[in-house]
Amino acid sequence: MTSKEIRQLSPVEITTKLRDTRNELLQLRLRKHTGQVEKPHMIRVLRKDIARLETILTENNSKTTAA
Q1: Which of 44, 62, 37, 49 is nearest to 6 (CA)?
Q2: What angle do CA 54, 58, 64 make, to 5 degrees?
Q3: What span, in angstroms and rounded, lies between the C-alpha atoms of 65 and 42?
Q4: What is the pLDDT of residue 67?
Q5: What is the CATH number of the domain that holds 48?
Q6: pTM of the full predicted structure?
Q7: Which of 11, 15, 55, 66 has the lowest tally of Cβ within 10 angstroms?
Q8: How far is C-alpha 36 from the chain's CA centre?
Q9: Running DSSP on this structure, what letter comes out for residue 36?
Q10: Helix 41-66 and helix 11-33: axis angle, to 10°?
Q11: What distance in Å separates the CA atoms of residue 21 and residue 47, rounded to the nearest whole number?
Q12: φ, ψ for residue 11, nearest 5 deg
């Protein structure tokens, strides 16, 4: 998910997407330990998506408090 797409979401949608992405990362890590991961690069992709979501959510929160 790109930053542009994330910025178009509401804060509630970002929070929901963040929770879902973290859950997906957890499931992927568990499958990695059992050796059932088909796409190991997805761990890195999900971590970066989480970072993007958190960054934009923090930016939105700082804009709200500054205004």
Answers
A1: 49
A2: 150
A3: 34
A4: 67
A5: 1.10.287.310
A6: 0.90
A7: 66
A8: 22
A9: -
A10: 160
A11: 9
A12: -60, -35
Q: Write the single-letter amino acid at 31.
A: R
Rg (CA), the chain: 14
Segments forming the whole domain that contains residue 18: 3-66
The helix, strand and coil proportions of the chain, stated in percent and rounded to the nearest 5, come to: 80, 0, 20
Query: Which residue in the block uniquely carries the two structure tokens 């979401």?
Result: 9
pLDDT at 32 over 70: yes
Residue 50 and residue 1 in contact, taking contact as beta carbons nearer than 8 Å? no
DSSP state letter for 10: -
CA atoms within 13 A on the CB side of 24: 17
How many structural domains does the chain have?
1
